[in-house]
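Q: Hi! First time doing this. I have a protein sequence and I read that you can turn it into a structure. Is that right? Here it is:
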Amino acid sequence: MRKLIAVVGLFALIAACGGGGGGTPGDAVTGMFDALKAGDGEKAVSYMSASALEEMDMQLEMLKANPEASAQQLALIGIEIDAEDIPGMTARDFAVAMISSPMMTSVMSTAEVSIGEVTINDNAALVEVTTTVMGESETHTIDVVKEDGQWKVTEFGMNM
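A: Yes, that's right. Below is the predicted 3D structure, encoded as structure tokens:
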């Protein structure tokens, strides 16, 4: 469950990122954060790399081990997912449900983001991002990769 809470916290802390696959690494980060702020889970997930979704899948597999307890834990942090839905969920489904939740939208709606230095090395990039969520500002380095010609957020620069 600690990993689940870390994933939720991760989305809250990175609220300033954005995009569903961008023309530049900064566009991908900005687009993802815009989607997070809007509570648009589908769009936010479109900015996630394949490896980011694989990480979400690992988190989801832990939830599937005990769907009832997982649904209760999620509900405690304001994310309503029915226990009977958890076993059939994909990582994409789970990410969309989390990001689209009223709790996440509430936290993210006032988030601000600013893009700092961007370092590109072939199909990988590092994007410095300063986020302000619920009055707290933090600077992180976001990993972004190019997949099928679009930049995608792959790692959010935070330890989980």
